Amino acid sequence: MEFGQDRVGPRERYLEFFGTDVLFDQPNNAIVFHREHLDKPLRQSSAELFAYVQQHYKQALERIRTRGYSSALLKLHNAILDNARVGEFGVTAAAEKAHISLRSAQRLAEQSGTSLQALIDEVRADVARELLSDRAMTVQSVSSAVGYSDDRAFRRAFKRWTGKTTTEYRAEIAD
Fold it and tell me: Quick one: pLDDT at residue 120?
């Protein structure tokens, strides 16, 4: 396991939970499968949890798909959504997924009165709102799911996107 953020708590808790060594301060969050370990059983696997998270993503992404974009922008937007399913939120990856150059993707977004990064952030914000609606998910888990290795950066971005803190958002939807 590799995490972009700092360790929170004793290293032994990570080892116990994941059943393997965990590296911190890495460039990305990643699960690295070394060939010699592929035959080992998973200690904390949960098909129910995986299905649950996958369902939340699916619902959020389907709601996002229904926006009224031009056909050209819709292709780019759908590429961003497809990338979001695997936790990829980069501008270059979005353009590659849409099979266009980065500059063409930027131009297409600009012609529609937005930016490529704004489209990506829109998807991130929508997915984050969907995941935050479930109190069982921690803010740190949501942060990681939408591509942030630092939950403080995610909290700032969420405030910029919505005008609310994650706590305010959760309190508002609980009412």
Answer: 94
What's the pTM? 0.60
Q: Tens of pLDDT along 24-46?
A: 888 877 777 777 766 766 655 66
* Measured distance CA(159)–CA(60) in Å, rounded: 19
The first and second tokens of residue 101, run together, are: 């150059």
Contact 30, 20 (CB under 8 A): no
- Please, what is the angle between helix 71-85 and helix 47-65, to 10°? 170
For 58-90, letters b (16+ CB in 10 Å) and e give eebbeebeeeeeeeebebbbbbbbebbeeebbb
- CB-hemisphere CA count at 13 Å for 59? 12
DSSP 105-143: HHHHHHHTTS-HHHHHHHHHHHHHHHHHTSTTS-HHHHH
At 79-125, the pLDDT tens digits run 998 898 888 999 999 999 999 999 999 999 999 888 999 999 999 99
